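dumping these here so i dont lose them again. two proteins, back to back, each one seq then C-alpha cells. dont judge the mess
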Amino acid sequence: MPLKSKEMYDRLNANIKKAIFGKEEQTKLIFISLVAGGHVLLEDVPGVGKTKLAESFARSLDMSLKRIQFTPDLLPQDLIGVNIYNPKEQEFTFRKGPIFTNILLADEINRATPKTQSALLEAMQEKKVTVDGVDYELPGEFMVLATQNPVESSGTFELPEAQLDRFFMKISMGYPSREDELTIMDTYGRFKETEQLQPVLTGQDLVDIRREIEQEVKVSDDIKNYIVELVQTTRRMDTVLLGASPRATIMLAKAAKINAAIEGRDYVIPDDVKAMCIPVLAHRVVLKGMDFDRTPEDVINQLLEEVKAPFEEV
C-alpha cells in the first residue's frame, strides 16, 4: 500500500533542492527529526549552508524561523523573553523572546554559558517557558536546529552528555561535491533562492504523516530485539565509558519507522535501523580515554558490524 508520507516528503525535498544543492541526506534527517517532534544538533564549520537549509525548511512548510547568535554574554531572558513594566497600564507585559517560533536556528550554542544553554534545553523538553512563575506555551510545531563549530574550542562551553541526549539527532552538513560547488559558484548572488520558495506542506500535513506512521508502519519483534540489542551493546563495549540510554532506544525505533515511511514502506527493515544509528546514537555515547583517532561514529560503525541484523523475508 503506497504511503502518503513518501509523496509528501518527495514534494518537500524537490522544493528544497531548488534553493540548496547536494544536501538530500541532511534534508531527510532533519525532516525525520521534525516529524518525530525532535531537535537537531548540527556540528560543522561555518559556510556550509546550515542557515540556508533552515530557511528552506521554514519556507517550504510555511513556518516561522528565527535565528539567534549565541555568545557568552547572552542571557536566558534574551532568549525566552522578559516582563516589561507598562506605566500607562500600570502592569507588567510579557515580551516574547526569539524562542517563540516554529524553527529556531541557535547558532554556536556552545558559546553560550551553561545557564543560557539550560534555559534553551529546558524549553526544548517541556515545549514551554516559565517567566516569573507564569508558563507560556511554545508553538505546537517547535524545532531547534542548534549549531556548533567542531574546530574552535576557545571561549566555548561544551554541552554535557545529559544535554546532548535531548537532541534527537546530531548530523553534519559536510562539504559539497565538486559538481555541487561549481553549481553554487555559478548561481550564488543571482537571485534569492530561498525567498522564491513556496510552501508545499502545511502543519496539518505533518499531523497526517505522524498519524499514518503510527497506524500503518509496523515493527516486527525481530526488529525490536535488534534495536534493543544495538543500544544495550553500547553499554558493554570496552571503548565506551557511557552507553546510550533507554531514550535512545525509543528514538532509534521512531526514526526507523519514519525512514521506512518516507521510503514508501509500511514495515521497518534492518537497513532503516542501520541508516539511523549514527545520527541517533553517536552523540549519546562517551568514549573512554583520550584516543583522538577514534570517534563515536567509528564506534557505532563497529557496533553495526558486531551485532547481527535479523534476516527477514518480505
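---- next one ----
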Amino acid sequence: MDTHLEFNSNDDRFGFIIMDTNKTLFGILHGNIRDILMEFTVDLPKKRRYGGASATRFTRIRKEKKLNYVRKVSEMATQCFIRNEKVNLNGIILAIVAEFTSEFNADDVFDPHIQEKLIQRVVISYGGDLGFNQAIELANETLVNVKFVQEKKILAQFFNEIFKDSNEFCFGLNDTMNKLESGQIDTLIIWKNCDLIRYVLRHIQTKQIKIIYLQIDKEKQIDNELEQLEKISLIHWLEKNYEKMNIKLEIVTDKSQEGSQFLHGFTGIGGILRHKIDYQSLNINEKNCENIDSNIDDDYSAFFLD
C-alpha cells in the first residue's frame, strides 16, 4: 500500500486505534512501515437476545460491557502511546465501527495527552489488519495536512531566527555540519530530496581520516590516495544517528512557499541552534562559567570520525 509514501518521511509517526465489536488493534504508521503494537479481543453480547432474559436487562448488560470495553481501550491507548508523560507522535487516528460512534463523542474518553493528539476519527467497515489499511486510506488527506502544517511551522521558526538576527541559526552544508559536529544544533532541517553522499575516507599512507560530502556524480573527484571506509546518503546517515546526537531532525519538502524558499535561498540544509546561556544575567562568576561551558556543549566528533 502506497497511500502514505508521499507525505511520510521516516521520522513521521502516527498512532492508530482500530476498534470493532470483536477486538481493538493499536498500531504505528512510521514512514512506509506499519507496526502493530498490540491487540486484544472482547466478547460483547450480540445485538439479538437469546433465552429468557428480559429485553431491558439484556440491553443494560450489553451497554455496561460496551462501556467497560471503551474504558479498556482508553487504558491500553495510554500504555501504548504515552512515554514519560509525552506522546511522541505527530497525531493519532481513531478508527471505529459505526456502533461505537456515540461512545466517543465526549472529550474525556482518553487521557488528556492522548486526547490532544487525536487529529481525526474515521468510521471503518472492518477491524484488525484490514481496518488498519482502511483507516490509513480514509485518513490520508488529514495525514498530508498534518505533515504540511508541521513543515511550515518548523521553517517559520528557522526564518524567525534569521529575521531576529539571533545568531541561533545556520545554513549551508559546511556551516551546518560544523555546527552539528560541535554539538550546537538543536534542530537540523534538510530537504527530502537532498542527494549528497557522506564519504568517510582514509589516506593510504598517513591513515588520516577525512569526511567529505559529494553528489554521487562527483565521486570521481576523490583523490586516488584516499580509500573509502563508508559511503552513505547524508539523509540516511542523519536518520540513523540524530537521536544519538540528541538533536531533532526535520525532513522537509519544497511544496510550501517556506519550503521552496528554504531550498532555493538557503541551500536546503540548515539548523536552529541550541539557546546560549547568558551567564551575566544569571550572576555566575567567570570561573564557574568555564566549568559550565565545558559541560553544556556536547562533542559529537565521534560520529564524524567513525
